[in-house]
Amino acid sequence: MVYPLNELKSGETAEVVWIICEPYMAEHLKHLGFISKEPITCILKGRTDSISAYLIRGRLIGLRAANAKEVLVRAAEP
C-alpha cells in the first residue's frame, strides 16, 4: 500500500516510492536523498500541520506536513 510520508508514525520506516510536487521541490528533495526505494524513518512526529523529522541516508531532515504529503512511501521490505 502506498501512502503519504506524513502518515508515517514515529519510529516507523518506509521506502520512498514517488514524489508528487512541483519540479523545483522534487529536485530539492532528490538532492536530499528522497529517491525511489530509499528507506526513510520518522524520528519525531510533529503536531498536525507542523514539522516532522525524518532520517534518510544518515541525515536528519525536517519537513513541513505539506511537503511530507507530497512524498509517497510504502512499508519497507524486511
Automatic annotation (TrEMBL):
Limits of the Ferrous iron transporter FeoA-like domain: 4-74
A Pfam family per the record: FeoA
Keyword terms, alphabetized: Iron
Molecular function terms, GO-annotated: transition metal ion binding
Positions in coiled-coil regions: none
Keyword match Iron: yes
Protein name: Ferrous iron transport protein A
